[in-house]
Amino acid sequence: MSDVALYFPYVNLPGDTWVKAAALHWPQLGRIRPNGYYGLRDSDTVKRLRDEFDFIVEVRTLFTHKSWVDDDVVARVRPDRRREYQGMNIAEQIDALFYDFLDTYKDELIPRYGAEALGVESLDTWDVYDDLLPLDPQFEEVHPGKMSRGLAQELARVGLLVSRDYQWRRASDGKILHIGELAMHRRLAGVYLAVLADVVARENRMTPLTDQPMACAGTSGWTVEAMAQILLADEAGTATEEQANYSQVFAVLALQTVVPRDLAEVPVERIIEARRRLLPELMAYRAFLDSLTPDFVEISKVPDPEVRAAKLRNHVERQIAQPIETMERELGRLGLQPVRAVLSLQTLAPPAALGLLADVVHAPSLVTGAGMVAGCLVGAASSALDQRRQVLAGHPAGYLLSLRHELSPSDTVAQIRSAVRRAAPQRRRGQRPLDRP
């Protein structure tokens, strides 16, 4: 699991609540932003997170020559290039995959996703419009910077892609801009953008991340057969069991135990402060999740979905819930008594928000445990603060407990600080103030 996620399919990020949740789980969040992209609409929250600690990473689609697509695909599509396979850049390999897909399934794709069948036409005019032209809701834009000219031309030739070229007068300054757009049916565009994100993420050692409920969330190496299963199955867009990334599901379930339900009401300043305080713990927690990958590989091999879900629940309970309960008990022995129901917990029906949709793998919407409804109220003498830090450092899941403390409601935080001030001995002149936990 990479320390940097790659959001797709859009350039503009989802709502602020989604972004806040991502900021509590990922050190950085990338997005594919083509050159010349003119529609950027970052919220104030996104701008603050970007400016305060470089949370947003702008990723360009600069492709290397790493081997990616199966050489059988290259042999079918470009037999002249099979021996030169290692010399094909990744963009050419993506094209080869889609050419092979079209050669195999074109007759089935066109009735479902063809522009003519759906009544959508291309546009090529020098007319000037005062507003950007709306796109048919059945279709999704694919920025020209995200697709090769050759693949766009082939998709248009068979009727699976439309292009729109026109002039737009920008209201802010009256400047006339040329608009060149590509668009495909939403499902077809979704699969293409998921393949692109998967390739770009693997090339840059990132983790694909989406808020869209398609099987694209389960990117793990695309094949012609996987694309057909998503686009041509009776329930198009249904994720396959084999595509589930259990390490990301685990991360979602673990985070659900600490993200407050009213995250939308938590000021971005609180998120920034939590990040600054807890970044070392966050990095340790993510390294801990990485160390569990072999366990998730074994879970993914269990054929029965109910048994697999049970094993996943048990793994979360054992690896996260129980250590947190143990830490809370130890904090209690130190006089740092847990206070129940300080935080209400978000089920975060993951908008694939932090990885894969929980319902894709029949995972529970919330993993509960005796220690998962508590905020930790610090009401002890100042010397106990160092003991608390030692307890939290005893297990990587201590990040989750610390996160609860940082995101407690403002009045609770004020009570905690007041209690600490009352309990702490007065500092002598010149003595440094205590570090906050």
Low-confidence stretches: 80-85, 215-219, 235-243, 336-388, 410-437
Order of helices and strands: EHEHEHHHEEHEEHEHHHHHEEHHH
The helix tally amounts to: 15
Going across the biggest sheet, name each strand in turn.
3-2-1-8
Number of strands: 10
Distance, first to last CA? 28 Å
Mean model confidence by pLDDT: 70
Helix amount: 40-55%
SS-derived structural category = alpha/beta
> How many whole angstroms does the radius of gyration measure?
25 Å
Strand content: 5-15%
* Main pleated sheet: 4 strands, parallel
- What oligomeric state do the depicted chains represent? single chain
List the helices and strands and how they pair.
Elements (H helix, E strand, L loop, with lengths): L3 E4 L8 H10 L2 E5 L11 H10 L2 E4 L11 H7 L12 H24 L1 H4 L4 E7 L9 E4 L6 H9 L4 E8 L6 E10 H18 L3 E3 L14 H9 L13 H11 L11 H24 L1 H8 L4 H29 L4 E3 L33 E3 L6 H10 L5 H9 L3 H14 L14
Parallel strand pairs: 1-2, 1-8, 2-3, 4-6
Antiparallel strand pairs: 5-7, 6-7, 9-10
Helix pairs in contact: 1-10, 3-4, 4-6, 4-8, 9-12, 10-14
Describe the fold and architecture.
This protein is of the alpha/beta class. The chain folds into two domains: 4-243, no CATH class; 246-423, no CATH class. The protein contains 15 helices and ten strands. It has helices at 16-25, 44-53, 71-77, 90-113, 115-118, 149-157, 186-203, 224-232, 246-256, 268-291, 293-300, 305-333, 383-392, 398-406, 410-423, and strands spanning 4-7, 28-32, 56-59, 123-129, 139-142, 162-169, 176-185, 207-209, 338-340, 374-376. The strands form three sheets. A four-stranded parallel beta sheet has the order 3-2-1-8. The protein has a four-stranded mixed beta sheet with strand order 4-6-7-5. The chain has a two-stranded antiparallel ribbon with strand order 9-10. β2 (28-32), α2 and β3 (56-59) form a beta-alpha-beta unit. α4 packs parallel to α6 and α4 packs parallel to α8. The longest helix has 29 residues, at 305-333. It is globular and about 70 Å long. The two termini are 28 Å apart. The model is unreliable at 80-85, 215-219, 235-243, 336-388 and 410-437 (pLDDT under 50).
